[in-house]
Amino acid sequence: MFKPIKLLIVILASLWATNGFANTNGESWVLSNVSGKVMLTKAGSKSKLAKLGDLFAPGDRLNTPLDGAAAVTRDAEAMIISGDSELELPVAGNTKAFTTVVQNKGTILFSAKKKANKHFEIKTPFAAALVKGTTFVISVGDEDSQIQVFEGVVGLKGIGRKLSYDITTGLKSFIPKDISKKIIISKVLNAPKFNPHLGSDIKKLIETYLGEIKLLNQEKQVFKLEIKIAKVEMKLKSKFAKKLAKLDIKTVLKKLRLEKVPEQKEKVIKAQKPKVIKKVAKVAKSSKAKKSK
């Protein structure tokens, strides 16, 4: 059976900044978020550590570590990739008009642009999903594949099977590796009848859908999309409690070795600083009171 993914959801909405990476190739995706040692293998090259802004292009493979995650975006489309996942963009099947993704393992949340014709296909070891534009999640394990649809319709065809199915909003499917066993399609308990299409808005996709993934034989699906900046408040408390109010934001960033942080994230930290100062002051006052007793 599919092994449950036991990672922690980290949704730090205030720390998500809009990426400023441009996509110059209609077939390529851009790595807009990276957590952990995500490996990118370019066609004909050795694997390397992926970084923000890298292109994920036809012929490439992406692997996330068990304790990591990643997100790639392209125009109004996105893929949010959980830990211990592997996906490829085959050269054949990827054009400006059509996208093919090979998902070998792991869990991925897809947001595909809405078009008149089917233009987006995901191939797994046990099934293929074809869509016009929708939001859905696919999980691939050793013994099965699973799909849950949040909005729109996903066309499902099991590998080596005759029948095909349309999985609509609020439904999920279980596709066993053993083709002698039936594909199971069922309703998601308490699923809303309508969900918004959020395009490539990673922040909203996380807030809206990650906590709603409910697939068979799994514990709650979670993704860890963590930015280094998310640890700033804790580090400030432990390192700069006494001098925090006097430090300017550039000094703080330098001491935390975050001076190369993009400008928009620096502004976020600056906006959070008054709250941090207030919390630190409260902790310091409390500690002083205890010592005096």
Structure description:
It is built from four helices and 17 strands. The protein has 293 residues and is an alpha+beta fold. The protein has two domains: 13-212, Jelly Rolls (Sandwich), CATH 2.60.120; 229-292, no CATH class. It has a 17-stranded mixed beta sheet that branches. The termini are far apart.
Lay out the secondary structure.
Elements: E1 29-35, E2 39-41, E3 47-49, E4 55-56, E5 61-63, E6 69-74, E7 77-81, E8 86-88, E9 99-111, E10 120-123, E11 127-131, E12 135-140, E13 144-151, E14 153-158, E15 164-168, E16 171-176, E17 184-187, H1 202-209, H2 232-239, H3 249-255, H4 263-292
Parallel strand pairs: 9-10
Antiparallel strand pairs: 1-4, 1-6, 2-3, 2-5, 5-8, 6-7, 7-9, 8-9, 9-12, 10-11, 11-14, 12-13, 13-16, 14-15, 16-17
Helix pairs in contact: 2-4
How many E-type strands? Answer: 17
Q: What CATH architecture label of the largest domain applies? A: Sandwich
User: Would you tell me the structural class of the helices and strands?
Assistant: alpha+beta
Whole-number average pLDDT?
78
- Helical content class: 10-25%
Order of H and E elements = EEEEEEEEEEEEEEEEEHHHH
What profile does the largest beta sheet have?
A: 17 strands, mixed
Q: How does the overall form come out from the CA principal axes?
A: globular
Poorly predicted residue ranges? 1-24, 227-231
- The top-level CATH class of the largest domain is Mainly Beta
Report the span from N to C terminus. 58 Å
CATH topology of the largest domain: the name is Jelly Rolls
Number of domains: 2
How many DSSP helices? 4
Hey, roughly how much beta strand do the residues contain? Answer: 25-35%
Rounded to an integer in angstroms, the radius of gyration calculated over CA atoms is: 22 Å
